[in-house]
Design brief:
Blueprint (H helix, E strand, L loop, with lengths): L3 H37 L6 H22 L9 H27 L5 H28 L19 H17 L2 H17 L1 H10 L1 H9 L5 H14 L3 H9 L3 H10 L2 H14 L6 H6 L2 H10 L5 H14 L3 H9 L2 H9 L4 H15 L3 H9 L2 H8 L8 H15 L3 H9 L2 H11 L2 H17 L1 H10 L1 H7 L6 H14 L3 H9 L1 H13 L6 H13 L3 H8 L4 H9 L3 H10 L15
Protein name: Vacuolar protein 8-like
Keywords: Repeat
InterPro entries: ARM-like (IPR011989), ARM-type_fold (IPR016024), Armadillo (IPR000225), DUF7032 (IPR054296)
Amino acid sequence: MGEEKPKQQQQQQNSAESFEAMKSSLSQVIEGISSLISLSHCIRVFTVKWQLIRKKLEELSSGLMAIENCGSSSAQNIEVFSGLVPTILVTVNECHRLARACVDLSYSGKLLMQSYLDVILAKFDNHVKDLSGFYTTGILSHGFAIVVSRPGVTASKDDMRFYIRDLLTRMKIGDTEMKKQALGNLYQVLAEDERYVKLIIEIGDIVNVLVQFLDSPEIEIQREASKIVNLISGFDLYKGFLVKAGIIGPLVRILETGNDLGKEGAVKCVQKLTVNAENAWSVSAHGGVTALLKICSNGDFGGELIGPACGVLRNLVGVEEIKRFMVEEGAISTFIKLVTSREDLVQINSMEFLQNIASGDESLTRIVVKEGGIRALLHVLDPKSTVSSKTREIALRTIEDLCFSSQNCINMLMNDGFIDRLLFFLRNGEVSVQESTLKVTSRLCCASEEAKKAMGDAGFIPELVKLLDAKSYEVRSIATTTLHSLVSIPKNRKQFIQDDRNIGCLLQSLDRDEAISGNNKKLLLSILVSLTSCHNGRRKIASSGYLKNIEKLAEAEVYDAKRLVRKLSSNRFRSMLSGLWHY
């Protein structure tokens, strides 16, 4: 026992000395690679070949720096590293001679030099694979790997590129933990500094690695990669690059077989990529439409997944062949059910889907109506329902787009209480909802005589008159247009005249409107002219304090003002006017 202990100590000492000697050689190799990378930037011939060689050198440098950071506790593995380092040094020296020949243009022939460069590239590729094997087998663990510091805000592009290259190397040759750490660091710099997004597109290899990681059996690796590609897909300039790299297929596979969290990340990315319809066919070709429809029809999924899935299908529905496929698969029925969801995002995207799929297509509009689409949309407009203002606005716009071109649909709306809902939001809605309601009310007036009568009976006139005093010119203009349409019905004119305040507000609006020849003023005058068909209307206008203003407009040759004066200048009302008019 006494003799054995000194023997063990001697072995440990020898191992430590060998380890330090190997690290000295390793430093020499790393310096040689650094020098070679710098020299390669001066080469102006065989540029593509040298770009490929430089990438391999950068990957190799990062991996070797990790070995250099190993402590003496890894000395038991020194035999493995000591065999690799001299081999790499030989290749580096050989490559350095080729680089010098390319810089000096002293090589004997292009074809021969191309052949030499192909051989040297293959050697470096093998070195990288050998190094990767050390990580895979656990000989070199992430605990010993040096962590390159993230460059500062004022860092040069070269420093940023080196940092990204280091992360790329770790993603390629590292163990699972090192890959996760590299992906996390990459996501952080991309989220905080857009310059890195452009940089990884320029490097190119990173995107290919990320696409491969989307198919990784390691859920955490897949999730981290999904977060990064989702971030990149938010930049319009780089969407095409992601698609060309083959990202759609892996994303669809996640939608088909991934866990819920993975599906949420994948569907958000696909939604961004399909904002432009150019990528629609790629999603369809990989089975994405079927996978998304399955998600939307599955009641077990939450709004975080179904909402964006609805959004993707809404983006794809503009392609006629894909739209027909969705209809055949029962998408309309599925989305009508989703309209009554409790999730705002799901409701909004499903309503926009229905709007996009049926707009301008009478046969599909009939299917939407037959499947209960109108009742579902009216449910969103129920004052008792707790939905956002934006959701109500989308519901109003969808009803307008789908229903107002068909008298049958308008009748269904009126029978199901649509008029009452419009009046409620015109009176009590938030500003954005009130304005949307006003626009829909105006459009409905122009679309149906029955609707005009129903609105007059329901009490729309006083609410519209109040809006003549709104701050927004657009609101005042739409309210005026709507009133002009309503008073075309005799019964509505009588209701208008019954409230003295209505004519007063109308005349005040006429007085306030500065543009003599503006369309709004013309409509106001036209409304007043129509009101003179009633005895009470003529009397109330004539007895108001605004006749002077009407006379001025008539003097300015405003046609409807002249008509109004004629109406009021009958024998019975002539004495009430301040002057005589001769025509």
